[in-house]
Amino acid sequence: xxxxxxxxxTVPFGEFLxxxxxxxxxxxxxxxxxxxLSTGRGLPPYVLREVMAxxxxxxxxxxxxGGRGPKPQEGIAVIEAASYESLALALIFGINWALFLxxxxxxxxxxxxxxxxxxxxxxxxxxxxxxxxxxYGSDALHMQTSWDEEDSLCHLRGTKHWAGLTGxxxxxxxxxxxxxxxxxxxxxxxxxxxxxxxxGQHVVVEERYNNLGLYMIPYGRNRIDVRxxxxxxxxxxxxxxxxxxxxxxxxxxxFPSMAMGFLTRLLDEAAAHARDRLVGGKALFDYDQVQARLxxxxxxxxxxxxxxxxxxxxxxxxxxxxxxxxxxxxxKTCITDLMQDAAQSLLQLSGAMGYRLDHIAGRAxxxxxxxxxxxxxxxxxxxxxxxxxxxxxxxxxxxxxYHFLNDYELTSRASGRLKxxxxxxxxxxxxxxxxxxxxxxxxxxxxMDLVIKLGERGFDKQLIAASIATLQQEIAGLVSSYxxxxxxxxxxxxxxxxxWRDFC
Length: 504
Description:
The chain is an alpha+beta fold. Among the domains are: 3-125, Orthogonal Bundle (Butyryl-Coa Dehydrogenase, subunit A, domain 1), CATH 1.10.540.10; 130-238, Beta Barrel (Butyryl-CoA Dehydrogenase, subunit A, domain 2); 378-483, no CATH class. The protein is 51% helix and 10% strand.
């Protein structure tokens, strides 16, 4: 089939997906060595050209503009296929989907949408998002990048960093606050589509970062001094802040798509190694501790499967996800923790051979680790989960955690199985560390609820039961930690550090 025809909506998706997988296998395994590619920065141009030849990003572009989408299940399936081969490649697609194409499709003006989508389909262009600034990483509401109007153009100035695809993307969604007013910068945030190849819109890369893991993706610091047509400013349905929340929450809900193929690959690799590797005269698979690690990876696989089904139903582009931060944050934090845990298990099972960047185990550890940091640090998001929960409990005039969760949409299925653990009053004035611990527990309860729901639809009963048991055990540990009143205090490090040698 002609690659140029692969984005056409009439091509059966099964055929489309098969062609994509074939191309990835050809370039990563037949023509190249994925292990070798993974140790170098970026990708050789022909590799990316081959991967993009069948236009995989077309699944993210609305059908009325020549794409296949937007069908969430197709988008998830394409990213799942990519993440089985490379988590970095899946993230490239995820950036284009959630952080660029979806907001353009939903909030872009007609002239801009047509130009952008045509560039993606005909010229295989890519796009990314710039929000984060050097001094305002987790505090986007105080970003200092600014804009004002100049002769029907919008002039943006500022500095952004840690934007995935730095120096690669053809288009950028740039965020800025309007100059003027009593405080210098407006409170609201605006989004602009920057065509990096157009006159006056070049984004200057001031530094390329030597990032740990995800070697295929360039990151760096970017200087913004561009003039963008007013037609390329996104049009929020209410405010720019709510638009940003809708964008970020939808992106977090789509993290399971990147995790799905990744976890499947880790499970395949771990099971094969455990069966083939002999230690002490028997296969690793026969050792109880090894089986325990494999069970945890299987549980993560099942949780992720449930989350993917949930995302197809609850993260449709037409739905406003701005008010659904608790659910989005729970999905993102839980699945990224499970990704890292599964990677650590594979590395432990692989032993010394896995402790290399050119091995899937070592690569999995460093590639999955930043997922717990970007698009909201997990510690911060866990605290926000608890804070959102406390607000809902206050509205419901409920202090007992079990009684609230038993009636809450996201936890009603799971709470009954956890009643002995959850029968306590929540202290709304808890310390920050307790906010994080309770948020971790709540995210797992939501995950358990999704697994139960998936089981009700007929998913493999054994996998469902094992995943529920694993989650119950983890939730019990988290709740126990939350309930522990003992708090260790920080000793002032400026006092100096005593030496053990003085006591010999």
